[in-house]
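Case 331 in the screening queue. Each case pairs one protein sequence with one candidate compound; here the compound is zinc ion. For every case the pipeline is the same: read the inputs, emit a complex structure as tokens, and attach any notable structural observations.

Predict complex for case 331.
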Amino acid sequence: MELRKDPITRSWVITGDDVSEKPPRTDPVCAFCAESPVAPQVISSMASVDGGQWSARSVVHPTPLYRIEGEPSRRADGLYDRMRSLGAHEVLVENPKHDGNLWSASAAEIEQFLMLAAQRIHDLKRDHRLKYISIFKNHGAHAGQEFEHPTSQLTATTFVPRRVLYELRAGRDYYQTKERCVFCDIIVQEERQNQRVLEVRGDYIATCPYAPRVPYETWILPRTHEAAFERFGLSRPGSMRDLGTLLRRTLQRIRTITEDFHLVLHTSPNTLHRSESLGYWKTIDEDYHWHIEILPIISAKAKSYTFKEVYYSPVTSETAVKRLREAAVES
Ligand SMILES: [Zn+2]
Ligand SMILES: [Zn+2]
Ligand SMILES: [Zn+2]
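Case 331 output:
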């Protein structure tokens, strides 16, 4: 596998010819369950909340896209840029139980999973080669779900993914003219207008964005300013409990519409180490604001938004939020 940069959009793609040559794994038992005899190498574990061996843990991805050894060896290829796919690729096992999903697990269990995510980001940022750590979840056949067991995935890369780069630049531009964080301003306006707010819980808000990319797109943000997810979680013990509950309730609501969704955490890039370029690295603590994005997939409408030049969402966020607010939530 190698990374190549599109010189027009400046986005990196990971490419290689050996992806599908391995036969699909046919283990008769789940590799991620608590007592699995075929468990992958464990990287980090969180203590159990109910007397078991662990509550959430990170393991090496069985077929990693990125590998941790060596240097990125970034080099030119005429006008193009390429580099080795250096980085990390982990599976974050959300729960030891095969049916312990983020919409059904206890608040304490979800909190442990969120704390695991924070700790992994914190650890990996100590590696100066790694510029960004992504945490995401693909759930459902239409979302490209990889494992049956409740899992999220982590990739650590030597570059900042394009969507995050757009957000960082937009955050910086807004801050330069207004001296305020654009995400903080969005939260204030949404809470005042109360047309797209799904739920407020303690220090967190779930809201449908003003201009959604897909129907029922939902963001969860902290209501107090913080650029880095892991700093927020690790510096304030207990701060992830309300987030876990709000995440669970939001996923319960979205699952009344569709089972398939993408979930991604957007947090600040690695600012512990000097980067050779880009001024926004200096102001990022002021102008970026971490958040979770949930992008539901409505298969019947999938055709409508495969045309990605302009996003098309056949449900407005005001209508989406009405339906999601009315959805039955267990706890
Ligand atoms: Zn399992
Ligand atoms: Zn903010
Ligand atoms: Zn984002």
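Case 331 observations:
- The first helix runs from residue 107 to 124.
- The chain has seven helices and 14 strands.
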